[in-house]
Amino acid sequence: MTYRYIATSVAGFVQQLAVAYINHGYVFYVAGHIPPGSDADAIDRKLMDKYGVAKSRWQRARRKLLGKANVHYLRWGSFWVLLANHGDHRIFQEEKDVLRDVRREPIAFCGYSIGYRLGNDGKGHVSVRIHPTEERWLKLFMVQFGRMATVEEVEAEFARLRFEPYAPVVRQLYGVLRAVNKARKLAGLPPADWKCVRTRRRVVRPFEPEKYRRAA
Prior knowledge:
The chain is an alpha+beta fold. The chain has helices spanning 10-21, 40-50, 57-65, 91-94, 132-146, 151-159, 167-186, 210-215; strands at residues 28-33, 71-76, 79-84, 100-101, 107-109, 112-118, 124-130. The chain folds into 2 domains: 10-106, no CATH class; 131-196, no CATH class. Helix 5 runs parallel beside helix 7 (167-186). It starts with 9 loop residues before the first helix and ends with a helix.
């Protein structure tokens, strides 16, 4: 069995983390960075061997029936995260001082905030949104840009934003666009069209090599 854990894009990392792991109950995590100059592969192996990460679907199902937790490992670049679901596992003792709960402390990664929240239906849902700090910077930049640019330039800038349009992200970008259009109105400029905000998320293959993604 080959356990794949190195994401080949930011979008792939976020998708795998949110949709494949957190959405299936892996809400406890430890995150960190591999120091510059370190052997990343050796650190990967050490962490995965220590916590028994590379298990088959059937092994994980058996552990779950026995009340034991399972652990996943995911890395992009130097950033790595170990995730565990509910149950008995040594990670809860070994990492007790640094273990976090994504329902209380979202994972901050490349301008995203990835967590788990209660929805309007009273049920828990994975939440992928723009990190508050990044959102403030983005709004400031876009409002300033919107006061000077043509409507076509503003719409093109929104269309090329790197954030994948998960529902919370779309709502945040609409908020940014409202601020931009308010500033443009005060400057006597026409508003940008709401359609410039992407609303359809690309489903990616998280572990697909970059060269194949470009050829697709």
